Predict the 3D structure of the following.
Amino acid sequence: MHINIPVRLFNLHTVNEKTLEKLKILAGAAKYDVSCASSGTTRGNSRSQLGTTSGWGICHSFTSDGRCVSLLKILLTNHCIYDCAYCANRRSNDVKRTAFTADELAQLTIEFYRRNYIEGLFLSSGVMRNPDYTMEQMLRVVKTLREVYRFNGYIHMKSIPSASRELVVKAGMYADRMSVNLEIPSEANLKLLAPEKDFESVFAPMRYIQQGMLESAEDRKKFRHAPSFVPAGQSTQMIIGATNDTDRQILTLASALYKRPSFKRVYYSGYIPVNTNDSRLPVLATPPLVRENRLYQADWLMRFYDFKADEIVDDTHPDLDLDVDPKLGWALRHPEFFPVDVNEAPYEIILRVPGIGVKSAKLIVASRKFGRLSSSQLKKMGVVMKRAQYFIVCRELSMQTVNELTPQYVRRKVTQKQTKAAADLLQYSIDWGE
Amino acid sequence: MTLFIYDHTFDGILSCIFYAYEHKTFPDAILSDADQRPLFIDEWHHIETDEKKSQRVWTALERKLSKSAQNMVLLVWLSELPETEMLLFGYFRKIIDHQHGFEMNFGDSDVLRVKEIARKVNGEAEKIRQFVRFQKTKDGIFFAPISAQYNVLALVAPHFRSRYPDQPWIIYDIARNFGLYYDTHSLQEVTFSLQDLKSFKSRKLENEKLSETEIYYQNLWKEYFETIAIKERFNPKLQRQHMPKRFWKYLTEMQ
């Protein structure tokens, strides 16, 4: 088949040979930011624009470390006036420095987008001259994308710490999501590792984003077509294992952030030593991936299972148990809560059972009015009986529960089978048996 | 055993239901003409597809099934799995014979299986949305070969259509030898000649068919993809889990 469509003449002047070199440097420098979600907003398209966003987000590829590639995650520049101990782009590092032009980066985004490589752009940057100057340069990129290229896909934009309110608000008009990275979970440690930053420099832009979102929501009540502001909310990232902060500090902070209406995600990034010879930083043989995974599981419990941070970690258990997932950990500390009768108990109670996830809990509640459920039916619905069996009663199953067998015994039974699985524990596979 | 022979259409399955209730006879297997017949058949019935009858059955089902369950039924049909006919037949019977709401009885094996297959088909459609890779041709058409596990091309077309309203594209299902062509106005089905198909099977268009900047952007993308992996976190098992190997041959970055 042959369809005659005029070859669109193509301008190679903005994107050129140097682009490849820049791409290597500026993507390499951006990769330690874990967030890559393109989720949180659904936006259809009018014919005059390019692109859509789909509520759940789309991963277009997975790198050899198993991480999702959804957005073109890139720095505008790796020039930086700051000297943060944990960062590869810090001022005192002798690395090659470069920068994209606004049009070059916009065009690159569009060409990748048209080939279905990406959902959009994740734009971050080192700090040139001062925070506001940097924000202005970043704004030029997103403005070009939205206004010149009529790009309607996903844009995640970093807000630079200490950026002024005015610029954060401007950026929010173009971005789907904004984020300011907390990086270090306690202020004392942050000041130690990033002498030019403090909590206020991070929390202030977070507040601007939130205020912008709330004001925009108010405006849209009055005027239906008022522009939306950061419709996918904000997120942040904490580095895990670079400091002595406990999981309790981390999760308490995360839980406080989730209480804010604008907060959609907190990301945890196992520390990878990019700068050697800095005595402020620990020497780690491998990044703390198991701990990072447990934190994601705990985060999941807080967001979807109605767990409170202080149920997951407390004074006697300030750090997560690396051998069992935090839900099982909680269950083993609270045998008095069990067994749960899946044929009678309310949804929220069933959700607390190890081995039962959101999906299977919903199936159970929907189906049990047609007849009492048996263990084989539960299994088919996706309940992981290996774990759940110690915590439930169903039609025929009145086996020994955690109370007769003791938590110590159940723990041993469950972790025995897990040792191999734990060895290749996977970063984002949060498996509650669904 | 009792056998129904039908014309391998969705209306045909609905006509089977009509026939079964009309004649109070229920099949042990439903096959199309092309299928191999089993041994030991006691009786078989040739079911004529009749749109009036199938419409009556569907109207009855619509009254008892939620929109999302109706959609699941359609997804099961698109799975093209060998069990499809008997599963849908059994499911429809149960829906007809029970009170409204039976679709939520996941303790029932048919109800659960319909949900499972629907989930798989949806999952495949999502994989296609993730892993389609367009190559820009000299004609300015963005071309992407796929080979889908289930027949999901029609499910994914609206997504690409609204995403790229000004961009002509072809997504071609090599496993089923048909594709959809969007010319920036409407969608149409296309089929390539065997010879063309052979050259697509090599997965990549020959360079002379590509737009002059295509290879350049492919290289940029590959370079980007290599660069952003963190070597301290190397985990190819996780990579394969999220991005099964059967898709790799169509992925620019995996070449």
